[in-house]
Each structure stands twice: as structure tokens, then as C-alpha cells.
Amino acid sequence: MTPGLFHAEAGYYDSFDDRGGDDPLIPNSEYRLLLGYEQELRRNLSAALQYYLEYMQDYSAYERSLPATQPQRDQDRHVLTLRLTQLAMNQNLTLSLFTYWSPSDADMYLRPLVEYKATDELKVFAGANIFSGRDAHTFFGQFEDNTNVYAGVRYSY
């Protein structure tokens, strides 16, 4: 088995218009980190994991300036992703599941997909967008009522 691939990204979101972090209408500056690993588990089956972190600066100023009616976010927002992809039938059938889960927000987003390449020109597919969350103000929880399934046909010439 071949070792997988690691990747890392880091960034800084500079809240230029509110460096003190005390304006509730302007997001505070943040450090952001993304770490990932991808590997083929066996022939035609791959998995990818990622960890994403948003760390808010000046959190105490954010807490003091937050209106009483607005829900408070955490200083650290964590998101874990998992993507599983299985190829079958001479790689004409793709089964895929992409999951996002935030333990800090207690919400998630699932994207299952089935795609079949009938010919070089014709693909048929079906999937879903499934949102769930404890609170309606979280990143994925706010879309809970937008959960859907879909199907389609793509013809390329």
C-alpha cells in the first residue's frame, strides 16, 4: 500500500476595520488552519480526512460587544471532514460520501453521491444534501430545512 498525501494550510483573516474586536457587526480577526491526509485504502477505494480550525482573536472584546439577543459563537470553531470514494464497474460507477462535522457547533452536512458513466457522453447521477444541527444559528444547522435529494443526466458532446 502506498503512503498517502499530507497537506497543511494556514492563514490569517485581518479584520482591518475593527482591530480591537469590539464592533459586533464586523467579524474579529482570525487564525485559520487546515490539515489533511488522503490515501487509497485498497484498489479503487480512497479516503480523505481534514481538520479545519478558526481561532477568533480578541474573544473577550467580542463577548462584551455582543448584543444580548445574538447567539454567541465559540472562540474556536472545529470542522472535521471525511470523504470516501469507491470506484466500480471498470471505474464507470462512482459511490461517494463527503461528510462535514463540527463538534464545536454540534452540526453536520452529508453529501452522498452515486454517479454512473453509461457512455463516454452520458452520465446519470443521484445524490443528496443533508444538513443537521442542534442550533439554527450554526454554519450547517441554519440549512437544516434545505435538506434535499436530486437526480440528473449529463450529456457531453
List the helices and strands and how they pair.
Blueprint: E1 5-13, E2 30-42, E3 45-56, H1 59-65, E4 76-88, E5 93-102, E6 107-117, E7 122-133, E8 148-155
Antiparallel strand pairs: 1-2, 2-3, 3-4, 4-5, 5-6, 6-7, 7-8
Question: Would you kindly provide a brief summary of this structure?
Answer:
The protein is mostly beta strands. Helices cover 4% and strands 56% of the residues.
Task: Describe this structure as you would to a colleague.
Helices cover 4% and strands 56% of the residues. With 157 residues, the chain is mainly beta. It has one domain: Beta Barrel (Porin), CATH 2.40.160. The protein has an eight-stranded antiparallel β-sheet with strand order 1-2-3-4-5-6-7-8, with no helix packed on it. A hairpin with a 4-residue loop joins strand 4 (76-88) and strand 5 (93-102). The protein is elongated, with a radius of gyration of 20 Å. The two termini are 37 Å apart.
Oligomer: single chain
Series of secondary-structure elements, N-terminal to C-terminal: EEEHEEEEE
How big a fraction of the residues is strand? over 45%
> Which fold name is given in CATH as the topology?
Porin
Fraction in helix: under 10%
Structural class: mainly beta
Unreliable runs: none
Mean pLDDT: 93
- The CATH architecture classification is Beta Barrel
Strand order of the largest sheet: 1-2-3-4-5-6-7-8
Task: Count the E strands.
Answer: 8
Distance between the termini: 37 Å
Q: Radius of gyration, Cα only, in angstroms?
A: 20 Å
Number of helices: 1
What is the CATH class designation?
Mainly Beta
Main β-sheet description: 8 strands, antiparallel
